[in-house]
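Section 4.2 – Deliverable D4.2 (structural model, holo form)

The reporting period included a commitment to supply a predicted holo structure for the target in complex with (6S)-5,6,7,8-tetrahydrofolate. Inputs used:
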Amino acid sequence: MIIVGELINASRKAIGAAIEAEDVETIQKVAADQAEAGANYIDVNAGIFVGKEPEYLTWLVETVQDVTETPCAIDSPDPKAIEAALSVHKGTPMINSISLEKDRYDNLMPVVAGTDYKVIALCMSDEGMPETVDDRLKIADKLVNGLIQNNVKVENIFVDPLVQPMSVNTSFGVEFVNSVEAIMSKFPGIHTACGLSNISYGLPARKFMNQTFMVMAIAKGLDGAIMNPLDKKMMANIIAAEALAGKDEYCMNYLKAFRAGKFDV
Ligand code: THG
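Output (structure tokens):
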């Protein structure tokens, strides 16, 4: 599982305040803690600051990279903000995300074309949010083919089928996990990723719903997630679910995690 640590997101109160105050220490602690907990990428999102997003995202990348070698996932719908952040990023980042929305697609495709960046391809178009497997496959098909035509390697693409809240429609959980399965089998070698926590929006005890949903999605092939790596139960669930899904030869990783105390949660 490729884990993208979600905690540096300006929509979280403490982080929004730290960004405005240029509080390096707070941001660096959250970055280092997530890297230490096993994040493969550190998501940086300054989306609430309209107009200032390029400036703040650039500052976030520099601040995070001063304290960890773990690369960033640059999280913005705005190609200009992504380009600004890329101009200072060292190493190979993840771009979060391109979508089929025309402006976003047309402006971001040249930025990722021919690069070795990891690219999240979000199943969203100008026609709105997809609901069924079929809706998602149609968008994924266009995004994946477009990226491949622009010389992005299939193994660098993470399709995000878009998680929608269970509280809105009882079928949204099943449609999502079936989309993961359909996308993984239609495009061999591709990855999937998502922000899981949307599934539990509007419900109590969200962590239980999120943790269980993760296991269901892993069973269908999900191999990337934008999540809180400091959630130890979630991390333990992932290790067990990946072993159960046949992705952990001789349960080596499971045994290693046990010995490291990762199941003492
Ligand atoms: N897909 C893609 N990118 C995304 C999302 C997605 N980026 C943004 C979002 N959705 C995922 N990121 C977050 C960031 C923070 C929170 C939720 C999603 C959040 N966290 C809890 C909090 O602040 O209280 C803490 C988490 C916890 O305790 O478990 O709210 O869907 N491609």
